C-alpha cells in the first residue's frame, strides 16, 4: 500500500546543466506544482522514482514554487543506475517525486556551525550556506573527487571553506571523521550538521556524542549512501536477527532512542559493518 513517503508527483526533465566534472544539475517541471510543498528545510531530500522503477534519495537544490520548477544536482562521477540516468537525461524524460523532508535544526543559541559533507551532501550544504544569516560563524569541510568540483556561493554568514580532494566518495575511506577528530572546535554553543557515506557518518556521530559528549539537539548527522552496498547488505542479512533482538532488548530495558542507537552502532561495527 502506498505511503506518504512514496513518489507520487509526476515531473519531467526540462533542462540539464554541467556544473563540474562530478555534478550535473537537472531541472524538472512538476505536472501539478500546486500540490507539491517544500518542507522549508535547506537540506530537504526526496525520493525520485525513475522510468524503470528504481528509486534514489536526492537533495532539492532549489524549488521555484511560482514556476513549478525543481533543481537537483546529481553526482555523475561514479557508476550506478541513477548516475547513468543523470548522464543520459534529456528534456521530456519522466520521473515521480515524493514529499520532501529535511533534518537541519540548529539550536537558537548556536554561535557557530560546522558542516561536514562529501559530494552527495554538497548540494544540501550549499543550500544551507546560502540561507545562513549574517553573523553566523560557519565552517564547511567538503570532501570532493577533484578540485574542479569546488563551488562558490553567496552568503551573509562568516564562512570558511576547507576542501578535501581525492578521498571518500567511493574511492577511499572518508577523511571527514579524521578531520573532525584532529581539529579543535570553537568555544561556546555550536551545532554540527554532517552528511555523507553511512560508515563515515557513524564514526562522526560516535565522536560527537561520546568523545565530545554533545547533546543530540546540537547535531544532525545523516548517512546518505552506503559504500560497497552489496557486500554490506549480504553481511547485514547474516546478523539481522541479532541486531533486531538487541534493539528490542535495549528498548525493553528502558533505554533512550540515542542509547539504543549507540548499542546498535557498536554491534554493527563489531560485525564489520
From TrEMBL:
Organism: Rhodococcus daqingensis
PROSITE patterns per record: FAD_FR
Domain FAD-binding FR-type: 6-107
Pfam families: FAD_binding_9, SIP
Identification of the protein by name: Siderophore-interacting protein
